[in-house]
Amino acid sequence: MNNLTMALNLLRQRLATTTAARCYAVKPVAVGAAGKKKKLGKLGPIMEKKIIPVETDANKLVNYVCGSNYMKTGEDVKLKPDAEYPDWLWTLNTERIVPLDELDPDTKQYWRRLRKMALRRNNQLSKLKKF
């Protein structure tokens, strides 16, 4: 009986020391690639900015669409001569946005632009309302 009580007392002491020492949550530690600790925000570790290399080779900039290959293997899309592209591509408006006054009211583009402008106006007016 004496050995049994000693064993129970020893077990109680071990349980008391392990639970008392670990009754709180451990803060998570984020370790970066270099072994440095990252700062923790409200939603977890803060991501560091990745530096993307900029292409400086003039020959590649003229002959390829740089950045079009997002795979690890392969190469960027090679530019073709202008004759291989469709004619409508060269008629696209890249200069400025055409004002509403210059658009034809019989087109879908006119009515979409008008609706978009009305939605923006209503949103601005709703911000000014006092509740």
Structural class: mainly alpha
Name the helix and strand elements from N-terminus to C-terminus, one letter apiece. Answer: HEEHEEH
Q: How many β-strands, per DSSP?
A: 4
Shape summary: elongated
State the helical fraction.
25-40%
Note poorly predicted spans: none
| Span between termini | 78 Å
Provide mean pLDDT, rounded: 82
- Portion in beta strands: 5-15%
Query: How would you sum up the major sheet?
Result: 2 strands, antiparallel
Main sheet: which strands, in order across?
Answer: 1-2
Description:
This protein has 131 residues and is mostly helical. The chain has a domain of 71 residues. The chain is 36% helix and 6% strand. The model has no long low-confidence stretch (mean pLDDT 82).
Topology summary:
Elements: H1 2-21, E1 40-41, E2 44-45, H2 58-63, E3 64-65, E4 77-78, H3 108-128
Antiparallel strand pairs: 1-2, 3-4
Name the features:
single chain; 131 residues; mainly alpha; two-stranded antiparallel ribbon; 3 helices; 4 strands; elongated; structural constituent of ribosome
Short summary:
This protein has three helices and four strands. The chain is mostly helical. The protein has a domain at 58-128.
